[in-house]
Every structure is written in structure tokens, then in C-alpha cells.
Amino acid sequence: MPSDVDGNGKVNILCYDIQDGFDGSGGYVAGYFYPLDLFDADTSNKSEIFYIDTYPLMGTGTSKNVNVTEA
Q1: Label partner for 70 (CA 20 to 30 A): which of 1, 23, 53, 61?
Q2: Tens-digit pLDDT profile for the chain (71 aa)?
Q3: C-alpha to C-alpha distance for 13 and 28, rounded to whole angstroms
Q4: Could you tell me if residue 37 is left (phi over 0), alpha (psi between -120 and 50 degrees) or otherwise beta?
């Protein structure tokens, strides 16, 4: 059975600018999964959650639309 820490039957996807030092070129953190979120710990979000980077993954402009993906 898949985990369901918070009992809601959902997986959360948090889109935000991960502060990874990206300066317009080179590598960056596109996203991550934090395993401690599946436990009752001080630094846990206590849910199944994926963290997705909005910059530059979703473009380098100031406006982001998480409902649209580029082909």
C-alpha cells in the first residue's frame, strides 16, 4: 500500500523558486522529495509532497503558470 501520512489520499506538489544558486546558466535543482515528510518530526510537512522548482524550470520571467507545460 502507498503511504498516506495525512489521510487525505492525495500527493501534494509544491511549486516555488528553490534557492539553489542558479544564475542563468549551469545546473539547478529541478525538484526533490524530502523523505522525512512521511514521519511525525519537527521539520516534517507530514504529507506526501514533491517540491518543484519554478525557476528556471517554468521559465525565467516573473509570471509563472503551473497549469501550462512547454513541449
Answers
A1: 23
A2: 889 999 999 999 999 999 999 988 899 999 999 999 999 899 999 999 999 998 888 888 888 777 755 54
A3: 18
A4: alpha
DSSP-assigned letter for residue 61: S
Q: How far apart are CA 68 and CA 49, in angstroms?
A: 20
3-state secondary structure 2-45: CCCCCCCCCCEEEEECCCCCCCCCCCCCCEEECHHHHCCCCCCC
Within a 10 A sphere around the Cβ of 11, how many other Cβ atoms? Answer: 12
- What pTM was estimated for this model as a whole? 0.80
